[in-house]
Structure formats: structure tokens, C-alpha cells
Design brief:
Elements: H1 8-24, H2 26-39, H3 46-55, H4 62-73, H5 80-103, E1 107-108, E2 111-112, H6 114-118, H7 120-141, H8 144-167, H9 175-199, H10 206-232, H11 235-238, H12 244-247, H13 253-261, H14 264-275, H15 283-293, H16 296-314, H17 322-336
Antiparallel strand pairs: 1-2
Length: about 350
Amino acid sequence: MGVVVPLEEDRGRGHNAVAQLQALVAAEMEAVNEFIRERMASEVPMVPELASHLINSGGKRLRPMLTIASSRMCGYTGKDHIKLAATVEFLHTATLLHDDVVDESDLRRGKRTARTIWGNQASVLVGDFLLGRAFKLMVETKSLRALEIISDAASIIAEGEVMQLAAAKDTGTTEDAYLRVISAKTAALFAAATEIGAVISGRNGSEAAALESYGRNLGIAFQLVDDALDYGGRAASLGKNVGDDFREGKITLPVVLAFRRGTAEERAFWQRTLQEGNRQDGDLEKAVEFMQRHSALEDTTSRARHYGAIAIDALAIFPESEYRDALTLLVEFCINRNH
């Protein structure tokens, strides 16, 4: 029942996977970071101040690294992958700013969220500013296909947020419905980040499709592990409070599984705490107990492994390279991480 918190051996391999990818793209990521700093500039002081708060808060920059690595794996030798990687990070940051407002979150990566410092209105507006910057960068690359992919992703992410809002506190949510939410809300940007790497390299056929599949399935696995960690992780590692999803009344896969497999009494508990919002002291511990009783955390992680395996298989059409190796190992990190 402790499967969610990874073994030390798995954790070490995961960190090595990230370190390997970071080493491969280090020079290009420095260029991406410089580009981000340059394009965050604004005559309105609050804009770069608020944006920098989140962008410089210690995230791993997985999504822009995926763009760099996928383009390099496809043999790209130009410079536009730097702009597209920055675009991906701007879009990701904008969605985080909006997410924190919608979810009323107080912590992000262990720090106070922008909304708790500058307020909800400023957070939403600076998120909109970053979206504008992202689309300007895409236009500069002059790749209509890349523009189409990222524009579609931005729309799909927004749809995912609305779907999640509509399903909020609904204990009748099915696993299929929840997977549709995270496929849109999380996986769409992973898929776009990797697919555009093939597109700007002129690989618009099976290789672009393979990288879209890799990113999408990696994104689903990443979110499923996030769901499990919210009930089985450690606050110090997560950079947020364990049980935030529970306190916010979110219906995630561990809840869906525990509710479906539970007794009538247990279902009444989930309806009281999540659907009605009537939570009492000790309810989080009881929620974890029910999840463990019905293997909900273990099976959520098992689902993540399934999607991770699909992601790895998608890379098989590419010739062996250090970039393919790094992207393969990254799947292991996303599944075995503890934060």
C-alpha cells in the first residue's frame, strides 16, 4: 500500500533521467531562459514581477526541454526550437496562473501563489499577457503547422479546465470522463511540446504522430502520478500541502476508484466530504484509509505505468540516440517521482 512513494532506487534512477536530459539540452535551455527573461519585459512593472515569481520558482522546465530534445532527436539544426520551447513555457505558466485562481490555491512549488500576493485579477491578466507573448513567438517562427498545433493545445487546455469545473465535486464521475479531463488539461501541452519538435524538423508524417503520442501519454501518466501523490506523497517533496485536492473537493482518479469500489457507507463519506463540502477533522486520514483499502492509489499508479509504456513504445520508430534514451528514461522519472 506504500507504492505511491517510490523506493530509493527508483527515485535515484528518476533523478538521473532528468539530469541526463538536462545535460543534453543545457546550452539550449540557457538560451530558452534568456529568451524568456527578454520577452517577459514590460513597461508595466507588475507584469515581469508577477511572471518572474512563477517562472523562476524552481520548476524543472520539462515541457520546453521536451521541445528541445524532440527537435534534436529529429535532426533539427536551426534556432526556432528555442523560440518554440519558450512559447511552450509561456503557455504553461499562463495556465498555472489561471489554474491557481480557479482552484484558489495558496501554494505552488512550495511558494505562495501569485494570486495570494498580487490578487486574482492581476494573476489572470498577467496570464493573458504571457499567452499573447507565446503567440507572438510562434508567429516569428513562420511555421503555420507549429502555430496550429500550439493554438489547438491552448484551446484544448481551456476546454479541459471547463470540463473539470463542470465535473467538480461530482462523485458520479467515471474513469473515462476523468481521463478526458486530464487528456485535455495536462496531456495536450505535453503532446504539443513534443510534436512541434518533429514539425520544425520537417518530419510531418509518422514521426510527428509518434512524438504527439509520446507526449500525450507521458502527460497522462504525469497527471495520474500527481493524483496519487496528493494522497500518498510528502508535503516537503510536493511543494504543496498533501490533500489539497481533497480540501478543494476535486474528483481525481483515486477518488473515482475508491468511490466505485466502496461500500454504501464509504460512498456517503465521499458525498459528504467532496460533493457537499462538509469536511471534518480526520476526514483526510479516513479518505486515505479508504483508498488504501481498495487499492485506489496503487491502481492509479498502475494506470500511469500503462500510459508510460505506450509513450516509450511510441519512440521505437526513431533510431537509437542519446536523445531517445533520455526521453525514454524521462518516462520512468515521471512515474517514479515523489514530487
